[in-house]
Design a protein that fits this description.
Elements (H helix, E strand, L loop, with lengths): L19 H12 L12 H14 L3 H7 E4 L2 E4 L3 H7 L4 E9 L7 E8 L5 E6 H6 L6 H5 L1 H17 L10 H5 L1 E3 L2 E5 L6 E4 L6 H10 L4 H10 L3 H11 L5 H21 L21 H14 L2 H8 L8 H27 L1
Antiparallel strand pairs: 1-2, 3-4, 4-5, 6-7, 7-8
Protein name: RecT family protein
Organism: Caballeronia calidae
């Protein structure tokens, strides 16, 4: 046994068909082998046409069958084969791909194709473009929005910069849902005709996809806390803070929340009780008994001690002292129940 690296010999035999008869023999063998893609199984004619298309593009026979897809009775070039053909061309300098505002609802895929002797061509495709074209509701867009944006930006850039390299063959991803300035063109599988419809209105599915890409930032939480002028608004800010994913940001948001409470308490120092018929002073930040009680009950139902404590922090903002006292009793009872339940679970 040796440690020699086994390499493919340059003079390895070429098994590609050399004439029409060999092409058809090879096509029949592939079509009946069970190893051909679904579109080509049992159809030697389709196999032969696909291999001929691939030959004109510089692909080997089996590469042709794997990378040429049939859409609406038309051959198209599939997936990364487009990029491989372009980057292997001597005229290609580089293909640069990246995202702007990645993983947000404003995400844009960008592709710049550089070619010797030509100006760079940059093409973009955004979630807004996909929405306008009615693509967001499609299943594959819900699962892989970033990949789909990337493939469209790439397809437009490479098609415009290297039409000679691609020999005019359509790109699968663009033919399936051909897009042209806000129009949706779908190929009829039976006839191969292109049908154009008006772009559909925004759908609930589209909103769900975009909502998955929305990220809560610390700046958003801080702003919500600062702008809160009522109990519900502050509670909403607390709920927003729970969506932060970084522990350090959560700590900063918590500290800012507590500082907000201290400032509000300083604006409304403890005073002697006013007469029953005297309306409470409007200091711009008040909470009702019902709001705090409801928040504590909801927190207890969720068994969320942090949310319960956050609701208790609002007790001091209730106007009447007797209501504050009642709420504190409710808080202590709820906390005891939650902590008692945790202890029982731990003992079990």
């Amino acid at each position: 046994m040796t440690n020699d690296v086994i390499t493919r010999e340059d003079d390895a035999p070429n098994l590609a068909p050399q004439n029409y008869d060999e092409l058809m023999d090879f096509a029949r063998m592939v079509a009946n082998s069970g190893l051909a893609p679904k579109d080509y199984q049992g159809s030697p004619e389709k196999c032969a046409v696909a291999m001929q298309w691939g030959n004109e593009l510089g692909l080997k026979p089996m590469q042709s069958l794997q990378n040429i897809a049939v859409v609406g009775n038309r051959p198209t070039l599939w997936g990364d084969a487009v990029l491989a053909l372009v980057t292997s061309s001597p005229s290609c300098v580089d293909v640069i791909e990246y995202f702007v505002d990645e993983d947000t609802e404003d995400m844009v895929a960008v592709c710049t194709a550089k070619r010797i002797g030509k100006e760079d061509k940059t093409r973009t495709f955004s979630l807004a473009d996909a929405q306008t074209a009615g693509l967001i509701g499609k299943d594959v867009w819900q699962k892989y929005p970033k990949r789909m944006l990337q493939m469209r930006a790439r397809g437009f850039a490479l098609r415009d910069q290297f039409p000679d390299v691609l020999r005019g063959i359509p790109i699968t991803e663009l033919v399936r849902e051909a897009i042209d300035m806000g129009r949706v063109e779908e190929v009829d599988p039976a006839t191969g005709d292109v049908k154009t419809d008006e772009a559909p209105k925004r759908t609930p599915t589209a909103e769900r996809v975009k909502s998955k890409l929305r990220r809560v930032t610390l700046a958003t939480v801080i702003k919500a806390i600062d702008e809160a002028t009522s109990g519900p608004a502050l509670k909403a800010a607390v709920e927003l803070a729970k969506k932060l994913t970084e522990p350090k940001e959560q700590e900063q948001a918590s500290a800012h929340y507590k500082a907000k409470l201290e400032r509000e308490r300083a604006k409304n120092p403890k005073q002697e009780e006013t007469r029953p018929d005297t309306p409470p002073t409007d200091n711009g930040f008040t909470v009702t008994f019902a709001e705090v009680a409801s928040s504590m009950e909801a927190a207890e139902r969720r068994k969320d001690t942090d949310a319960l404590a956050a609701a208790a922090d609002l007790i001091a903002q209730v106007d009447k002292k007797e209501q504050q006292a009642e709420l504190r009793v409710m808080f202590e009872a709820a906390m005891n129940r939650l902590q008692g339940g945790d202890a029982e679970e731990a003992a079990a």
